[in-house]
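User: Can you help me understand a structure? I only have the sequence.
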Amino acid sequence: MDIIEAIRTRRSMRSFKPDPVPRKVLEELLDISRWAPSGGNAQPWYFSVLGGKLLDEIKAKLEVKVDTSYDGTGFTDTHPELPRLSTSYPEALMPRVQSLRGPMYGSV
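Assistant: Let's start by predicting it. Here is the structure, written out as tokens:
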């Protein structure tokens, strides 16, 4: 598949089947996700795969959150439990980002 075909055939999904995703499919998706590009080549992501009782608990909490903070046009509670980072990258990734900037900008 080339990029034009990918753009033309992509679709947005808004409803999902209740079937669990097979473990092999999840592992393949996580493996290929490691190759995604990132700004500054920092790869500042972490993956979490949830299932079973923990997933059910999180879904229930999200339903309560929507029920109590969505007024039909937007969310009235805009203070998330996990605030956005105040810096571009977590401190642990900054040495990597800084070490890559020189060679990257030097070649531009």
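Now, to help you interpret it: The longest helix spans residues 52-69. The chain has one domain: 3-79. Let me know which part you'd like to focus on.
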